[in-house]
Design brief:
2 copies of one chain form a homodimer. By secondary structure, chain A is mainly α. The first copy, chain A, has helices at about 5-15, 15-25, 45-60, 65-70, 75-85, 90-145; strands at about 35, 40. In chain A, strands 1-2 form a two-stranded antiparallel ribbon. In chain A, a hairpin with a 5-residue loop joins strand 1 and strand 2 (about 40). Mean pLDDT of chain A is about 85; it is low at about 80-85. At the A-B interface, helix 3 and helix 6 of A face helix 3 and helix 6 of B. Chain B binds a DNA duplex through helix 2.
Chain lengths: ~150, ~150
DNA sequence: ACAAAAGTTAACGTTGACGTTAACGTTAAA
DNA sequence: TTTAACGTTAACGTCAACGTTAACTTTTGT
């Protein structure tokens, strides 16, 4: 078990097979191992990872290009460790790690800014609600004066 | 003063004239008064309103269709009061107000849910940062043991 | 008064993010 | 073993959200 075909993944993640292959093509989603017949075999980790991708896309409104950036830092290094066993030079790895640190900080800063903006939008909506309710009250009072 | 042409608006809001006309065509942005020559004359309120639209689009990742929905509640009723002087029947107005209340509540619920998800994404990013830093430490220790 | 700058509508072009169809090979249950 | 269900690649279609160009009118500084 712990082996899923593309249709299972599509169903659980709420997207189509076409989209999954498209994401793989773009490098948004890692290419899984294949069966002898060339069928893509996914693991549970793949599914969880794809779910995160969809959340980032939906909630943050990321484009696919931005997703590549985002994923290259957030949890991609876990997947990369398992997917590609890329043995690079020590210096290369070091600079890659430093780059990850920087990207992570940028992502954190960005998401905090977004949260703040969303909070002020929430506040505004609540104020609008108060004003609307006041208006409705007045509206009904006028009606009872006729 | 307090009169702006489309290029002023475009510059201040960081979009193109084409986009402004397109938004007007879609009903996302109210059609302003025209000069005798047919030129669109905007007020400061228009600019502030458009800025809000752009924020909602960028931060919430709304599509233009969703924006129409969003705007029909948030602050649209202010603009509508000034733009269209639609005198409808009392019953009609009442049901419209009730509908606004409901939409407002839905929007507030939705934005709160998004904020929560973004917070958990932020937490995750911070945890990743901690793990990454730990890994880098170990990485450098191994290097000094050679 | 007039040229340049800025405005207009109209219509076709582009890009991103998939959907759909075709033409074909593979797997699994009867 | 065969056939339905499922898989594949390849290529064209689609829709939203603008960009771009063309052909034209209006406004404005000198």
């Amino acid at each position: 078990m712990d082996e899923y075909k593309i249709d299972d993944v599509a169903r659980e993640c709420g997207i189509t097979k076409r989209t999954i292959r498209y994401y793989e093509e773009l490098g948004v989603f890692p290419a899984p191992d294949r069966s002898d017949g060339g069928i893509r075999i996914y693991s549970r980790e793949h599914i969880d990872y794809l779910k995160k991708i969809m959340t980032a896309k939906d909630i943050l409104g990321f484009s696919l290009q931005e997703l590549v950036q985002y994923l290259s830092v957030s949890d991609a290094y876990k997947m990369h460790h398992k997917t590609y066993h890329d043995v690079k030079s020590r210096e290369e790895q070091k600079s890659k790690l430093a780059h990850m640190q920087q990207m992570l900080d940028e992502q954190i800063t960005m998401i905090r800014a977004k949260i703040e903006k969303m909070k002020s939008m929430e506040t505004e909506l609540e104020e609008t609600k108060v004003r609307l309710n006041a208006f409705i009250l007045k509206f009904n009072e006028e009606a009872s004066q006729s």
